Amino acid sequence: MQLLMDRIRKDGKIKAGNVLKVDSFLNHQMDIELFKEIGKEFKRRFADVEINKILTIEASGIGIACIVAQYFNVPVVFAKKTQTKNIAGEVYTSRVESYTHGRIYDIIVAKEFLGKGDKVLVIDDFLANGKALEGLTALIKESGAELVGAGIVIEKGFQVGGDIIRSSGIRLESLAIVDSMDEETGTIVFRNEEK
Amino acid sequence: MQLLMDRIRKDGKIKAGNVLKVDSFLNHQMDIELFKEIGKEFKRRFADVEINKILTIEASGIGIACIVAQYFNVPVVFAKKTQTKNIAGEVYTSRVESYTHGRIYDIIVAKEFLGKGDKVLVIDDFLANGKALEGLTALIKESGAELVGAGIVIEKGFQVGGDIIRSSGIRLESLAIVDSMDEETGTIVFRNEEK
């Protein structure tokens, strides 16, 4: 998605440790006009499949997922991150290891909001090591719902997440795939960029 | 907002300790069609004022704020909850005491996304004791931005938050104010309900 790649080049900041800061428009301050274009693009890419629910994970996935959901006319469910023990039986739960924050947390979804018959599109802002997406996939599987695909705004193509998810047979659509970036020069190379 | 009050009566669940669960449509599973009506109603109520930014707080405020923002054509900034110490100078920070979760946390907003000249509308899902809203108000004041008003989806009118905020001179618009609710009978009394 060229509009997104242009925006990442313009406003993204490359930091030490392969960190790409896009918090001026994606995940702290949120450019809703851009989110609408992202929503249209996901709808275009997943136009051929039936979806009745969007699943995301707090916190930075929620805003994008809600705007995207308008183009699919479906509700959004967000998985909650928790470090407290939950009452077994009421929620689906999965463990996620976060490299960025150096901690392990559980994600939970109430059983009443996900289950057999649901055709789920996962939406998230970033895909790097793929741990969050693996956790969501495990939740969906446990619930008996069907994972139709995953829509990611920015994939870090130089990390393993994309390869792992694609090789597991999940349909993955990433709107911008960063293959490399250089902190010193500020250069970003995107996969399959047209221009 | 009658549509919202009807929905709370239909799908809200009253639990012990004055807890109103609305997680089937507001803050776990999110009904985007309802959010759009909420957005239109906030736009109607704040039609007379100039707003250039919406501020909310993670996690459950984000989805509502993003949909609402479409009707104002402004970006959204969400305050992040953190229990880690942040680098002074880069963020505005405020302390919030959560009764519901029995803990104290800091909320932060990067300085680059809030400041003098900003005319801010705060959007959140719930107002009860008003601690989160007080924290956001303190952040806005510290930043030099102007707090134009606060839009709340559900106010618990039997708790002190609404009175505190209104008496401080802040323009507060709550779409549904619960004056009382009864766990045993399931009855909810809303303030100023027309029917």
Structure description:
Helix content of chain A is 28%, strand content 35%. The first copy, chain A, is α/β, with parallel strands linked by helices and 195 residues long. In chain A, helix 2 packs across helix 3. The interface between A and B is medium-sized, with 31 and 31 residues.
In short:
The structure is a homodimer. Chain A has five helices and eleven strands, in the order αβββαβαββββαβαββ.
Question: Kindly, what is the distance between the CA atoms of the first and last residues of chain A, rounded to a whole number of angstroms?
Answer: 11 Å
Overall mean pLDDT of chain A: 95
Largest sheet: number of strands, sense, barrel closure of chain A: 8 strands, mixed
CATH topology of chain A: Rossmann fold
Name the assembly state.
Answer: homodimer
Query: Per CATH, which architecture of chain A?
Result: 3-Layer(aba) Sandwich
Helix content of chain A: 25-40%
What percentage of amino acids of chain A are in beta strands? 35-45%
Secondary-structure element series of chain A: HEEEHEHEEEEHEHEE
Overall structural class of chain A, as computed from helix and strand content, comes to alpha/beta
Quantity of strands of chain A, as a count: 11
Q: Strand order within the widest sheet of chain A?
A: 6-7-5-4-8-9-10-11
**CATH class value of chain A:** Alpha Beta
Largest interface, C-beta within 8 A: A-B, 31 and 31 residues
When the domains of chain A are counted, the total is 1
